[in-house]
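Q: What does the assembled structure look like for these inputs?
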Amino acid sequence: MKEKRTDYPGKQMYDLAAQLFPICRSITGNGVRQTLAILKLRLPGMRITEVPSGTKVFDWEVPREWNISEGYIENSSGERVIDFQENNLHIMGYSVPVDVYVTLEELKRHIYTEPSQPDVIPYLTSYYKENFGFCMSENQKNSLPEDTYHMVIKSQLTEGSLTYGELVIPGEREEEIFFSTYVCHPSMANNECSGPALAAQLAEWLLERSERRYTYRFVWIPETIGSITYLSRHWKERKSRVIAGFNLSCVGDNDHYSMVETRYGDTLADRVLKNALRHHGKEFTVYPFLKRGSDERQYNAPGVDLPVVSFCRTKYGEFPQYHTSADNMDYVSPEGFQGSFEVMTKVVCALEHNWNYQVKVLCEPQLGKRGLYPTISRKGQYDKIYAITTFIAYADGKNDLIAISDRIGCPVDMLIDIAEKLKENGLIAAVEER
Amino acid sequence: MKEKRTDYPGKQMYDLAAQLFPICRSITGNGVRQTLAILKLRLPGMRITEVPSGTKVFDWEVPREWNISEGYIENSSGERVIDFQENNLHIMGYSVPVDVYVTLEELKRHIYTEPSQPDVIPYLTSYYKENFGFCMSENQKNSLPEDTYHMVIKSQLTEGSLTYGELVIPGEREEEIFFSTYVCHPSMANNECSGPALAAQLAEWLLERSERRYTYRFVWIPETIGSITYLSRHWKERKSRVIAGFNLSCVGDNDHYSMVETRYGDTLADRVLKNALRHHGKEFTVYPFLKRGSDERQYNAPGVDLPVVSFCRTKYGEFPQYHTSADNMDYVSPEGFQGSFEVMTKVVCALEHNWNYQVKVLCEPQLGKRGLYPTISRKGQYDKIYAITTFIAYADGKNDLIAISDRIGCPVDMLIDIAEKLKENGLIAAVEER
Amino acid sequence: MKEKRTDYPGKQMYDLAAQLFPICRSITGNGVRQTLAILKLRLPGMRITEVPSGTKVFDWEVPREWNISEGYIENSSGERVIDFQENNLHIMGYSVPVDVYVTLEELKRHIYTEPSQPDVIPYLTSYYKENFGFCMSENQKNSLPEDTYHMVIKSQLTEGSLTYGELVIPGEREEEIFFSTYVCHPSMANNECSGPALAAQLAEWLLERSERRYTYRFVWIPETIGSITYLSRHWKERKSRVIAGFNLSCVGDNDHYSMVETRYGDTLADRVLKNALRHHGKEFTVYPFLKRGSDERQYNAPGVDLPVVSFCRTKYGEFPQYHTSADNMDYVSPEGFQGSFEVMTKVVCALEHNWNYQVKVLCEPQLGKRGLYPTISRKGQYDKIYAITTFIAYADGKNDLIAISDRIGCPVDMLIDIAEKLKENGLIAAVEER
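A:
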């Protein structure tokens, strides 16, 4: 059995994240392409799109493409103080090339640390202003002796393109469930090798289903500029089709769960994810849109108005390892991934079965004659069939399954089973809603 | 004065309940007929209806009629261990006939007890599956010696009918206030000799009123199958006329008050009963529809949609005596009945006077010149006329009397007096609402 | 600098209130005229209106005009026990003339005190019933020896008129912001020399503004009969124009802040004043309309329906000095007035800038290229631009500035600055709302 266990979804996602981890990604460049290539091996249907530098995307412009081959600081003895090969966080993202000898004082002007966490390398970028920088731990910076240092960054900022991947899994309806995650962070595990891995696993799981009521669409994109670029090309179609969307980020740790609501917190995506978390048995936090910070910002922008929530284990920015070298493969775990996968598959199941039901008889149906009710009535026994009778009591065509679950406190998966039994018995019918 | 006191409504209801108590009722049969006959002596206008066994009533069918003449267990010495004549709870409701000699072991397979309350006889029925059973205390069961026992039940399950009583007290309008209670429980006092007694008392009290804005309709029916049967014949008319309804059950104990809301808890019936309880000065509990369990289930079923709440003292299922022999005439009291009567008469008064009022002058009327306001204004004195001025402030045609009471915190009966005075002075007028 | 400080608004209002304090006002008479004359010196645009005694005003009638020249009690030695010249609260408002010699016992029947505060003279009136009375401290009353006393009141109740002042400060729009305060109380400082002084200061401040989106209307009127008289002549026009109104009363003490809501607590006036108080940094209490007591009663009467809240520091009736001689110029302070002025100017600024804004680009605008965003992104830095990005996130045309402030927790004045910057950058536009 142990061998089998290594194949469970949480482990598969962990392994995929581990494969993505070493790649040096940024919002453009070959790191993104390598990442998408690995994902496409698992999901051959993925379509990869390149959008040229300089393309106008709403208020923005696709930036020049950044690639880097080397980056280090060498002391006068030729020893490398830090080296991009060891940890790609050592070089500030989008650093321009440099090759100069400097004093310690001058060097320090280009070193960035996180003084409150003296052991970790912070993650920094300078996408939209020409700059360069080296990142290291506060402790290492403080231990540097007076010397002449050689600062070297071999990078190119060139006309190129921004790259993203997209996968569509068709269903009976054109209405879509949308998943978005990003592929622009260098070697950090939870933020963000975890989101792409969860998205891939969910896509595989959906492809295996024989029936899908909805179409499912996944995008793996660079954060912010990627979602803006994607939306600039597809927002009208998404707006007309997406009924619920989920931005996946920081889904690999095994702490509690979190979500960030949509702008007004009242969409189907908000309702279904809250419901799933409520019944998942672990603590969770619902952050209002005021606490947003990932691509839900773009999807919920006024005029775009897509019903997209963010789903996280511990929310981005809320764990100390966030945006540092401590967000490594030890911080995430197969169990953490597994929990996220279970929540999101419950969300999908709930959406697939989220009909408004209408009971087809007046007054309570006689459950006893259909074997759905104990035949000897006695004190205390009613509790056992609470879910079934209460479900029927609210099957008045006005409530979808999620609303009934929220009202009566039974998990949606239990209600799906009940609805199935009642349908077989001709007692309820799905009403075409929405 | 003491003699007079024996005639107060609480005592009259208690006495009527005591008269109903010994009768062996079930969902059909002569016990129901005897019960209705006693009630009809008090309310000659009551119409008694018989619905034949086998009649289709929505998803159900009127069952065969059950009557019982004898039921006992005899030991080998010819001594009766239990006897239906002593307590009709000893025989499971709807037991089929039996006449066999059995060992103690075999006997015990047919004995039902409530182990958590070892002194009481539990109340059990098996309406919809052929079965028989004997009920006794756990203690008695445990004290039975090895012996040969004679199990005897002389009952008949025959084509007959289901019986219910109905009384209509006409008012100025066809719109109805509806009361329902049930007559299908054997010798238990609170659940349910109390509901029929309260309904009878309310009906007498209404018949004595010279003016009735609304029509009042009372039904005394078997629980579940009775309300389903009744609705199968009358639901369309009820749906078009009933503006508020009250299911009366467990109204004779003297503990706190309770109610069970309608499906969404927002009807006139919910509002008026909550308001009355709020101002009645005793603790009360509002149970959501999730905690339903009596005939409010049928009246609120999707498609039936009657605005019917349940009114109780301690709610069915919430007192330990419930559905046992301990629910006897000691558990209920004249004081308990009296409290229920007072709440329900307040409810009726509130409904009769529940107009939307509109003030007929702009700005505050001058109360002083009409003797409605103290003429020397000084610090602290305003409180005394708070109710009258605040009533006027919300007499904008948008609020009914109950809404104003809820908003300003004055009991409806005080507002009825105020409204009367203001109407006499030409300061307000009732607006035709709803 | 100290000299300059004496000119700050709080000090100016305090000085004006001190000038108004000694005048003996009532709901009619020369005291009101003197008060308005002083205010008109500051606000020459004020129009003074006289409404003759006997004029029908809705359910009321303008009373006869009351003036008083002398009022005292003299003992048999010719010493004045109390004298109107010393404190005009000694004579009950609207006292008819009297000139009789009485015993102590008889005298006491005409003396009013506040036994719970034995040191203060209470304020009493008898506007609508012919009466006379003397007010003194409980202690003084108890110290009066047996004697023959001379009760003298030289007053006239004559056909005259009720007087009020009105000032209109035009703006771009006919829609009005309305301020009301009253000028009918004799020598009490907070209630009510403070309201007229704050109204005058606000009017001066508004006159100095070069641009006004709205028209501003101020009335200085006698309480109750004055607002009724005013409304009887102008309510239709006010109802068609006033979008928010503020009744100013008890605004000179330096304790916490209060407001009384409109009838349903949901108008623009409610929203803007709550918002301003929320961000003013001091404790405040929002009283529901149930706790009303000043002219908000008339403005909010059914059918009149003006959106007028009351603004106070400590609410009328809630401070022990209320309606006694202890409400003197020591109870109010320049600091107290200054706080009220600051709240009300914030209210005006918020209303003037209360547009619905719509962002003009899809997705988040690129703030960096406009110098509105730090260019190096790193952990923790996002907070600094929280207000600007969150403002944009809710600039969807559905929320006015006050609603956004309420939602995101930033004060309106900060949002006004942000909106200005974003407008300059072409990123948002005001939507014509309401």
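The mean pLDDT of chain B is 94.
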